[in-house]
Design brief:
single chain; 382 residues; alpha+beta; 3 domains; 4-stranded mixed β-sheet; 4-stranded antiparallel β-sheet; 11 helices; 19 strands
Amino acid sequence: MKTLYLDCQCGIAGDMTVAALLDLGLPLEHLRSELTRISLPVTDYHLTTEQCQRLGMTGRLFDVQVSGDQPHRHYGDIDAMIATSSLSDGVKATARKVFRRLAEAEAKVHGVPLEKVHFHEVGAVDSIIDIVATAIGLEYLHVERICCSPLPLGSGFIETAHGLLPVPAPATAELLQGLPVHSMIGPGERVTPTGAAIVAALADGFTLPTDFRLDRIGHGAGSRDFPDTPNILRAFLGAATLPVATDQLSVMEANIDDATPEILGFAMERLFAEGALDVWFTPIQMKKNRPAVTISLLIDTAELARFAELVLAETPAIGLRHYPVARTILERRLEERDTPLGKVRFKVTRFGAKPEFDDCRRLALETGLALREVYRRLENGE
């Protein structure tokens, strides 16, 4: 699996991320060409890149030079700008995901609904380019998974459109919730809101994979020099095996030809409630041409005796069979997110996120929307 490990110990920003991807092999001309697919509110902008030094380390600097004033922009305007572009579906999905996380953080910090969030620095053309360019670079380099190191908190104050704010800025601090951080660094803004949004939206691991094979390193330099650490983001590109886990379980089964559907339905409910990992029925044909069913359950091997007692008590079965099985599972987590329809739990894996059925069912009943429409809106971020 193509894996990108972001070494953010000295910090991360949008321009540093793009610079690191350019240093890894993203051609600047390809980036320029792809950016023409989005209708930016200005056409007079220029992308530059050059090598520079940060405390003795060499890195690539990426800069977006824009002429003229840049007005405030609402989240919906930026999202529509990306959604209606001719960028690839993958690039659009990645860029929209980052901006949504950013908008959710801003909405919470300022106490406003998501649709009323407007951006100052982040809404500027250079920041839109940073996020979209990051998505373009990840697709060009065929990155399948992103992991990240702990991020520095920084300290002190910064000047913003809202006035003097503490470091990390409120939106950055909101985005850093749940992420590993450290304080082994001096004052200054080391993680920007855009950098934090990229990590919060796209990283699905926070350690270097143990089986990682390093192929290339990109160095993305920040625009400022700090006296204590080199202001450089290192991006390690390589390969790692799919993050899965394997455990040993047992399957227990019984063939039943003399139970009503009500008995079988209740038995399934009871077995799930008692901790069975899975329960299912398979239609079969038994002796004397009787239609019947096999009840199967996946359980921890140590629980064989307890579940045997439950199956024999809740069904007419008078005998059981069981055998060991190995299970390979993809790493996943349950994550509650704010959506236009309300709070929804998502099951998140390396391959994406899926809204939980119970929450979708609740929203369908509350809103009157069809269940399929609820799924569609949540999956498209609407």
